[in-house]
Amino acid sequence: MAIERIIKAAVDRGASDIHIKAGDSVRARIDGRLVALTKQALTAEQTRAIALRLLETEEERQRIDALRDHDCSWAQPGVGRFRVNIMRQRGAHSIVMRVIPENVPTVEALRLPPVIERIAHAERGMVLVTGVTGSGKSSTMAAMVNTINAHYEKHIVTLENPIEFLHTDLKASITQREVGIDTETFRMGLRAALRQDPDVILIGEMRDAETIDTAMKAAETGHLLISTLHTPDAQSTIMRVVAMFPAEEQSVVRIRLAESLHAVVSQRLLPRANGQGRVPACEVMIVTPTIRDLIIENRVGEIRDYIADGHVQYGMQTFDQHLTELVNTGEVDFEVALAAATRPADFELNFRTLSRGQRAPTPLANAAITAAANRATAAVPGRPAGAVPAMPSHPLGTGPTLPPMATSPQGMTVVTSPSPFGREGEDSVFGTGFEGLFGA
Fold this sequence. Notes:
This protein is of the alpha/beta class. It contains 17 helices and 13 strands. It has helices spanning 2-12, 44-54, 58-62, 115-120, 137-151, 186-193, 209-220, 234-243, 250-260, 289-296, 303-309, 311-314, 319-328, 334-340, 344-355, 363-376, 435-438, and strands at 17-21, 27-30, 33-36, 69-76, 80-89, 92-100, 125-130, 155-160, 173-178, 200-203, 224-229, 261-271, 278-286. The strands form 2 sheets. Strands 9-8-10-11-7-12-13 form a 7-stranded mixed sheet, with helices on both faces. The protein has a 6-stranded antiparallel sheet with strand order 3-2-1-6-5-4, with helices on one face. A hairpin with a 3-residue loop joins strand 4 (69-76) and strand 5. Helix 9 packs antiparallel against helix 10 and helix 13 packs antiparallel against helix 14. The longest helix is centred in the N-terminal third of the chain and has 15 residues, at 137-151.
């Protein structure tokens, strides 16, 4: 069939997704861009025929015209495996196919931070892989399962819709269940998984409070649970989980989440500087005793600073730290990294500081400096709040004021003193980093 040749050509060109829609040409997402593969637009009858070929069962084919949103998988020898979504748009069928690599990826092959492999070795707890659609979450989870499979004699149960990567039993025994075929819903499959002697449970997506509640119970009872959320970073992940529950339950949920959560890995895919493929930028949070307290006390806004300061000791990193590394190694252009940064202004300032060989102050160091400044102007008895202490009498003047500044007589040469901030032509201690504000 002609469509199979087109799909094969898209896979050979490194496509991640293929779009088939009535009234448009076949398109493929290659290196993040949606590229047309054909010149001729498809008709509604042609897209319906393609959808019929992709459906798995005769029952589904019989009700093709009643389908509005349908998920399935499709495989063809010599072509590849795909996750398929069939939908209706403008009264006609439309199809989006996600390419599933034949080989299960590794952490190294995906160029993920090494700390993610350490996370996969955890004995228990909840690990959440987050990011927008198409950011590589499924590949990262597959790499973590692959690590466990290669090192431990464990039972791994996966709940997916549909099954994407096909794992081969190595040291571990892997049970892969597809929602809609092997179990009715994620919720029911997860409940059943707890009675199937699992060591590790992977859930394709947590969509509601009941599934999250059961997932936390699984982590609380000594299992390693891996799942995904469509959140951009660690802070928003915690807030999203808590917000899924009623207000009167949220204080208890924060305590349970703090105790059961082990790590959050958030990622974004960025185009490589050489134009060939994409590279993941990751934020990694390991739940330390300090971060656990911040979650319980609802001080989630402070977590990013602790992630940044835990880079050396725990292997944690913020998006901006990883983006700086990717720019320094030449994998990503600075402009691309700046656009993807969580705090673009701070990222630019810190990057320019580091590029000049100076050590940028950490977020917690900045917070300490601010706190010290606030203490210096704190209210004391007899002084208005926020007032700066008065200066003592100056020996060269009268009262708290300094003598008037001397000026050069008219027509005389102005004499200047050496700058305390550095010699002419050299960087001063305050000089780096301000070019982005005032120009070079």
